[in-house]
Fold these 3 entries.
Entry 1:
Amino acid sequence: MKTKTCVKTMAALTAAAALALTMNGCKPAESGGGGGRTTIQNKGSDTMVNLAQAWAEAYSKEHPEVKIEVSGGGSGVGIAALIKGTVDIANSSRDIKPSEIEQTKKNTGKEPKEFTIGYDALAVYVHKSNPLDNITTEQLAQIYQEGGKITKWSQLGVTIPGGGDDIVRVSRQSNSGTYEFFREHVLQNKDFKLGSRDMNGSKEVVELVGNTPTAIGYSGMGYATDKVKMLKVDGVAPTVQTTLDRSYPIARALHLYTVGEPTGAVLDYLNWVRSEPGQIIVEKTGYVPLPKEKWYKKP
Amino acid sequence: MSDKRRATRPLWAVYGEKTLEWVIRVAGVSAIIFVVAIFFFVFREAAPMLVNKDFSLKEFLFSPEWYPTSMSNVRYGTLALTVGTFSVTILAMVIAVPFGLGGAIFISEFCGHKTKETLKIVIELLAAIPSVVWGFIGLTVMSKIIMKVTGAPVGVNMLNGAIILALMSVPIIVSIGEDALKAVPDSYREAGLALGATQWQLVYRVLLPAAKNGLLAAVLLGVGRAVGETMAVLMATGHAVHIPEGILDSVRTLTANIAAELGEAPAGSPHYRVLFMTGVLLFSITFVVNLTADLVVRGIRKKG
C-alpha cells in the first residue's frame, strides 16, 4: 500500500518535472523573438504613450521585422529605466535633469542622447458647462500652490451651473513629467497645495474633469474630449501656432532619450519618427510636430 | 528482519520518501523564512532614513504634510495617509460587517441545502474577482451613482472606496463566519429548540454568543483585507492627500501611495526610503490586525 502511494507520488513528481522542463524549454524560444526579429523597449511619459503607441503600430506595419514594446508610467519612470538600462528609448515630457545625466554616466559609462520629436501645449481643462474662458498663470498658481488664496469659483467671478462653488483641483502623481513641468512653469517650483486629486494618467485627468462640473485640471492638449473645455491661458488659446511661436505660456518640448549614440534598429526608428510619416502621426494624435525644416531627411 | 523489509521496499522508495518528507518540511517552514525575510528587506531599505537629518519620526507619524519631491521644503508626513487608510477601512467595515455576518447567519441557519450550496459558490466567485476590476467598477460605475445620489462634487471618494472594499471583504467575512457558526455543536441547537426558542431567539441567544470569537476573527480578517488592499482603493478613493472631513471627501491610503510613487522614486533616494518606511508602518498595522485575529481564534480553540 505504502509503495503504491509512493509510486503514485513519484509519477506525479515526474510529471511536474517534465512540465517544468517544457516550460523552461519554452522560455528561450519566446525571448529569442524567432530569428531576426528585433524588439525595441520603449517606456516613459504618460503624455506621450498614445503617440508612442501610434508610432509603434505604424512602424511595425512598414517594418514587420521590428517590434516596439511601449509602456507608460511617467517620464520619471522612463528615465529611471533608461539609467538602469532596461529600456532602449525613454519618452519624456520634461527635460532630463543634470542629476539624471550624472547617474546615467555612472551606471552605463555613456551620456544620454536627446531627440526632440515635437511639442505639447499643457492645456488647462474645465468642465464643458463652466462659463470661464480665460485664466491667468497667476490665478492658476493661486489655485494650485501651497498657500494659494483661490479656492472658490466665485473668486474668479464664475458661477457653476448646477451649483457647487469649491474648486476641485485635479493634478498628477509626482513622477509625472506633466506634474513637474506645471510645478516649474506655473508654480515657479513652489509646492502644490495638498488635497488635489492626483490622477495616474493624462487621460484620467481629462476624464475626471469631464465628469465633474466644479473641477479644473491640466493635461496634454492631445487628450481633449467633447466633455471638457480648454481655457485660454493669459488670453492665448493652446494651438499648434501659439505653441510653435511660444506665445502660449505653458508649452513644452517632447523628447526621446537613448543611452549613447543609437545604432541599428533604434537609430532607424528614431530617424523615422523625426521624418514625415512620424511627424504626421504627432499632428494626428493632437500634438505639435517639429517645424518642417527640422524634419529628418534621408541623406 | 531488515533483509525482509528491504525486499518489500526498494531503496529508491525509502529515499524518495525521505526526500519528500524533507521537501514538505521546507515548504512548511518557508512561511516563517519568507515573513522574516520580507520584514528584514523592507526594513533594510527603510532604515538609513532613520538617521537622515531631513527625517523625524514625529513628523513621519503625526504630520499631514506629504511633500516627498518638493524643490524647496521636503516633508514626509504620513498622518493624512494613515487617517485615509483607517477612515476608509472603518467605513468599509460599517458596511461590510452587517452584510457579512447577516449572510453567514442566513447561509448557516436559515436556508435550505440547495440555496446554501448555490450561495456558497456565488460568494466564492465574488471573492475571486481581481481587485483591479473592483477598482474599475468604482471609477466608472460607482462614482457616477455616488455623484447622482449624494450630490458630491467628485465621485471618487472615501464612500466609493469603502463600498468597494466592503464588497471585497464580505465574502471573507461570510465564509469564515459561516465556518464559525457551523462549529457550534448541534446539541446547542437541539437544546435551544427543545426549550421552545424560536429560530431567531436561537441565533441571537445561543449561536452568536457561542460563536462570537469565530465571528470576531472573521471580521478582523476582513479588516486585514481592507487595510492591505491597494489597486481598488487607488482607483476609487480619489487619491488626494487630505484629512477627510466627511465621507464624501477624497482620501489617499498608505498602500495606494506606495503603489503610485515607488515606480518613480530613484532607488536609494530619501523618497524611496520613506516609501519603504511607509511599508514598515503598513506591515505593523496589518501585523497587529492579524495577530489580534489569531489570538481571538486561539481563544475559541481553548474554549472548544
Entry 2:
Amino acid sequence: MTPAIELTDVTKIYRRYGGKQFATLKSALLQRSILRDLRPSETFPALNGVSFVVPRGSTFGVIGKNGSGKSTALKLVAGITKPTSGSVRVEGRISALIELGAGFHPEISGRENVFINGIMLGLTKREIQNRFDEIVDFAELREFIDAPVKTYSSGMYMRLGFAVAINVDPDVLLVDEVLAVGDEGFTHKCLDKFSEFRRRGKTILLVTHSLNLIERFCDEAVWLDAGQKKADGDPKRVVDAYLTKVEEAEELLLAQTNLRAVEAAEPPAPASGAPPADPTSDMFQATEGRWGSREIEITDVSFLDREGQPSHIFHSGDPMSVRLKIRAVHPTEDFVFGVGLFNADGVCCYGTNTYLEELIPETMSGDAEVTFAVDSLDLVEGTYKVDVAVHKRDGAPYDYHRLLYTFRVKSRTHDVGIYRPRHRWLFSSAIRFRSGQGPE
Amino acid sequence: MFANLTNLFRYRGLIQSLVARDLKARYRGSVLGFVWSFVNPLLLLLIYSFVFTKVMPNETKGIQPYALFMFCGILPWTWFSSSLSEAAGALIAGGNLIKKVLFPAEVLPIVSVLTNMVHFFLGLPILIAFLVIYKHPPDAWDLVWFPVAVAVQLLFTCALALIVSALAVHFRDIRDILANLLTLWFFATPIIYPMSLDTVQKYKALYNLNPFTHLAVSYQEILFYYGPIGHWRWLLALGGASAALFLAGYWLFDRLRDSFAEGV
C-alpha cells in the first residue's frame, strides 16, 4: 500500500530579513539587483533533511518545541510552500486545519462565508448545500448564521472555521494545534470527529504540544528539533525521548535560575537588611532574599537525585536530597539547620529544622556538609522553591536563604493539591476497570 | 504553466463567489446598498456636465455634448485603473489565504479586475440613459464591437494585474508608483480630449504606442460617434498583444508563486 504522505530528505530554507525589510524597486533598478534581491541573502533552515512516511489510514503526530519546524512541515505537506530541496508526496485530497476561518470576510454573513470558505477548500456549491446543516450544527451557530462574521466572538469564528474545514471530507487531514479553540465540549466534539476519521481509514497528521493527545491518539509520531528529526516511531517512545530532552533543557534553565537568584540575593555586607528576629514569624510571606550574620555560612546548596548527582528535576516518588555545604568561621555550639519547601503559590508544603526534631547541637567547626534526605518525594507536579537556613536556637539567623532554590517535580498523573499521600485504590469485585488504563 | 492555466478555468466557481462576496461586502452597511453602483457614476456625470457646460464650457467641435464624450472614456478607464490599484494590494491583503490555506493566488488579482468590471457594467445604463436624453444614440451596428472592446480590455487588464500583483509582493513601492503612473497614463490617453485634436495628431505615433489609446478611441467610436467604426484593426491588434502579455504575465506570476507564502 502506498503511503499517504511521504517526505524525502526535505529541506526548507527561509529568507531571513536583515536590516532592510523590503527591497525597493528603485534600488533594485538602480543597482540592477532585481534577481539578486529576489534571492535570499541571509537564510535560515526551518527544516533540514527531514524524512518521514505516514502510512495511509494512520494518525501521525508531530511534536517539538516552538520553532522546531513543525508548522513548516505541515505547510509543506499542505502544499502552501514548496521545499527548497527534497520531495513531498501526498496522496488524496488534503484539508488543512492550520488557520481556522482564514478567508472569512468580516462584513458578510456566516452563511455566505460558509459557502465561500467551502469553495476555497475545494467543495462545490452543491456539496456545501448538502452539508450546510451539519456544518452549522457542528459549529453550534444556528441562531447567528445570518449575522455578519465581524459580530462573532473569536470562539464562534474558530468553531465555524473548524466546522467548514472538517466537513471538506478530505483523505488527509492536517491539524495544527487547533484543538485549543473551543470550550471543553467543543474540544470533545472535535476529538470525536477525529476518531470518526480514523475509523473511516483517513490519514491524520497532527501537530500539537499536547503530548497526552499524541500518546492517546497517534499510531506513530515524529519529534522535530531545530529542523531535524530526532526520533520517530512508536508515540510513547518518541514522547519519552522528547520529555527527556525537555527535562535536560529545563534542568539547565533551573540551574541558571538558582545561580542567578543566589547572586542577586548576595548582600553587600553581612548582617545587613532587616533580618526578622524570628524567621518563622513570616514563614508565609514569600519574598526572596538572604540575610544573617554569616558566622556560619551556607556556601553551596544542591539537590541530589537517586544516584547522588545534582539535578533540578525529580519525579514524584523519587528520592531527593538537599545538600548544604557549611562553613563556620568560629567553632560554635549553638546552631540549628532548617529546610522549608514552598510550592509555586508560595504555600509552605513542609518545614522543619534540627531543633524542632530535638537534635541538640554540640559542636561544629570549619567546613561541613549537611544533607536533608527525602526517601520519597511525595509531591504533585509543579515547581517548588526551597528555604535553607542555619540559625541560633533563639532564631537569630547565621545565614538564611529564602526561596532562592528552585526544583521541579514531574508526574505522569495530573493530580492536584500540595501533597501526595502514598495511596492505593481498592475495589470490591463488582467494580472493574479496563486494564492498561488509569495511573501507572 | 499551462496545467496551471487550465486550473484557472476550474476555479471559475471560486472566482465567481469571491466577486459576489466583494460586491456584497462593499455596500454592506450602507443605506442605499447596491444603488450606489448606479448613483456613483450618475453623480460623476452630473458633476462633469455642470463643470463643462456652465463653469468651463468646452465647445470643441465634434465632441458635443462634451460631458458625454468624456464619460465614454472615463467609465472604462475607471475600471482599468481601479483594477490595477486593487490588484497591487490583492495578494498582500489576501496574505492570510496564501500563507495558511492552499489557495490559487492568481485568483485574487483576477477577482479585483472582475469586481471592477461589474461596476463598469453597472455604470453603462447611466451612460445609455444620458445618450438617449441628449438624443445622441450610438449606431446600433457599432454596438456589435462593444463586447470585443470589453473582452480586449479584460484580457489586457488581467495581464497587467497579474504582473503588478506579483511584483508588489516583493516591491511594496509599486503601489505608490502605480498611483502616480496611472494619473500620468490617464492624461496621456485621449479620454478628456479627442484623438482628432491637432496637438494629438502631431504625436500620433507616440499615442499609438499607448495601448489604452486604442481602447478609449474604440469606446468613443462605438458609443459616442455616429458612423462606422474605423479603429477595429487597432483593437484586434491590441487583443492579440494582450493575449501575449497575459501569457507573459501569467508566466511571471507562476515563477514568483512559490515566494508569495513567504513574501506577503
Entry 3:
Amino acid sequence: MRPVNAQITKIVEETPATRTYFFDASFKPEPGQFVMVWIRGVDEIPMALSYDNAITVMNVGPATSALFGLGEGDSIGIRGPFGNGFRIKGDNILLVAGGVGAAPLSPLAGKANSKGIKVTTLLGARTKEELVFRERFEAAGKVLVATDDGSIGKHGYVTQLVDEQDDYSQLYCCGPEIMMKKILDKVEPGKAQFSLHRYIKCGIGICGACCVDGLRICKDGPVFTGEVLRKSEFGVYSRNERGEKVKV
Amino acid sequence: MLSLTLTGLKLRNPLILAAGIMGTTGGSLRRIADSGAGAVVTKSLGIEPKSGHPNPSMVEVDCGYLNAMGLPNPSYKNFQQEIDIARAGGVPVIASIFAGCALDFSEIAHGLDADAFELNVSCPHAHGYGSEIGTDPTLVEDITKAVKTATDAPVWVKLTPNVIDITSIGLAAQHGGADAVVAINTVKGMAIDIESGYPILGNRSGGLSGRAIKPVAIKCVYDLYDALDIPVIGVGGISDWKDAVEFIMAGAMAIEVGSAVGNNVNIFKDISSGMEAFLAKKEWTINDIYGMAHRI
C-alpha cells in the first residue's frame, strides 16, 4: 500500500517528553500492531498505534523531532497497520510497561478489560512526570508504579515489581530492550509476549533489515513469545541502519 | 528431480533467494535455506559500511514494489560470520558485492569466502555504483575479469534491464569470464504522493520489482539465452511455480525469487513442489523445458 494521508487533528502532551498525535484516519489495529509514519521530506519510522487513530511518540531523534515540529492541521503519511500484535490468553493478564513502551500496551489493557479479563499493570518510568498512560491503565485494572528516581511508587526498576506477581495467565511486555531481556530471563518464556523495536526499512517483510536472527520484526513480529526469543540474539545485539551489530 | 549443477555448484533445486531479500543476517539467510531454497544470495556488500537512503525505502504500488534502499550494508569486512552462519543451512551461499571500480570489486571478492559471487552492476538507485557501471560494456568486462582473477569461486554478473540492448552487456560479462549472468535487476521507477506532491521514496526514485516486471524479465532472459554461451539465471516478478516454469522455458537455468518472499517465506517449497507436480503430469524433465520456447 501507498502511504495514506493523515491530518493531525489533536496533539496531547502525555509527559514532558511524550506526545500523542491523533489523526483523521482510523486503522482498526490489533493491539501491538504498528504503522510506518512518513514525515514528508524527512524520514519514515515505525510507531506503535496507541489508539485506533493515534501514535504516542517520545522525542528521541531527527524524525521524532520533526514530528514534534508539526501542529494540528499538518499532515503525515501512514502505511499499515503491519505485523502481528498481542494475543490475549487467559483471564488474568499482567502488563509490564517501561517508558513509552506503554503505547502499544494501553489499547491491550482496554481491550482485555472490555472482555472481562483481569488486568494488572506494572508501569515504570524515569520520574513521576514521565509515566505514560497511567490513567488508561488504571481504568482497566490495578496499577503498580516504579520510578528510577523514586519520585512515586517503588524506587527502582519496573522489573523488580514482577517478582511479587506470579499468578498471571500471560505477561505482556514492552519497553527498553534491556528491561525486556531482564523480564524474559525471569519469567516462564511460554507465558510471556514481548513487543520488539528495531530499525525498520521496508515494513513489509521483504528486505530483512529488521531481522533478529531469522525473525522479521516487521512481519513475524513485532510481538513474539518468550520461547521464540530465548534462542535468539534478542537482548544481546541489535543492528543499525547499516546492518552492523550493536550491543544492547 | 529438480537438482542441477550450476556454474559448478550443486543445487538441490534451481530456486535461489535473490539479493537484498532477507539477506542482512546469517540467521535470515539460514531461515530461507531451511525453507527450501536451492541457494541464497546475500545483501549486496561493499568496501565500507553504508547507511543507504532515508526512508521510505520501499513501498507497494499497484503492480509490484518500488524500492530505493541505497545499498545499506555493514561492509564485507563485517560479514564473513553471517555467511558462515548461513552456510550451516547446507546450501550454497552467494555473496552479492558492489563497488565503484574493478580494484574495489577485487578486494571484496578476495576478502570473502563464499560459494560464488554475484556482481551487482545493476542497482538503479545508488550514485557511482550499480547500473551507473553496468550500462557500460567495457567497465562490465573489466570488472568481471578483475574479480575472476581475485577469486576461484564462480562469478555471476547481475544485469540491469535499463539499457537499450541487454545482450551487449551480457556478452561483455561473458568476455570478461563470467560463469553466468543474472537477469534482471529492478526497472527504474517512481511514485508521487498526490496529497503533497512529494516523491514517496526517500531517494525520490528507485527500482520496480514484482509482478509488473515479469514480462520484461522474460524477454531479457529469452534474448540472453540466444546471445550467450554461459547460463542465464532469471529473476523478476516470480511469485509461483508457473512463473518459474515460464522463466526456465525462456532459457533460465535457475531462477531467483525476491519480493514474493515477503508474503510467503515458504515460497521455495511451494514452487518446487508445484514444479515437480507439473513436470510429473506432463512427463517432462527439467531439461526438457530448459529453453523450450526457443525450440518450437
